[in-house]
Write the structure tokens for this entry.
Amino acid sequence: MMQKTMDGDGGGVMGKTMGGDGDADHGGDHAAWSVTDALLVPAGQSAKYLGIDDARQLINAAMFAMWKKNSFNTSLTIRWDCSIVPFDPSPKSWLDRQGRLFERMARWLVRNDIPVSYAWSREIGSRRTLHTHVLLHLPFDQRPALREFLLKSGGFRDGSEPFSPLVYDRSVYGEGSLPQKAGALKYCLKGMDIAETYRDPITGQTSNVMETLRVDDRGEEQRPVAGKRVGVARPLDRQARLEAGWRELTSLRDLYRALNP
């Protein structure tokens, strides 16, 4: 049963034995790591911006969660450089560590009778900070408890904003109204490739994806990232949606309507 709560589209090492929900990956003092190393691309991989398939994944998961009445009402940013324990910024290590933390978060949600409903997007920002944006369903009164759990379980050192490793974004992202929730999705998609175009298979019309979806171009603020860029919880993944009879939003028009209610 627990297997279904985990990240359904990668982002971690599924099925590995964990050290317990409260156990961080402690490995000594805060390790010095090179941001330059984080930008290196391993052999056989390429750094990439988000593409239209990534947008489809996040948007369909968000709309499906809303349909299930477990909509994303919370937006959380995780800064991986604010770690007590050694952090290896290479793509595989970053994804593995993130996956382990999300597995623990899923178990925490289940223990607290909260639906496992989340999606994520990895970014390297303008100041070369490595971070992950997480959209999730979370009762507001549980925010402090989840943050405290993630700090302990993830091996983070706490600090005041803007240097805190775990920041709940302000009400403009992820709170009650449809436009605000759409704003949260757009924010997670700001790492898209401004040059990407899409040719409609029916009309034959070619359109710029970011401009059509009205996602802001952040220019050099966004950097390409090696490895998997986005993912969703297993109860929201493509297979779960298919089994529930969900009609996938695939066309640029459908995606636009979801992002611009």
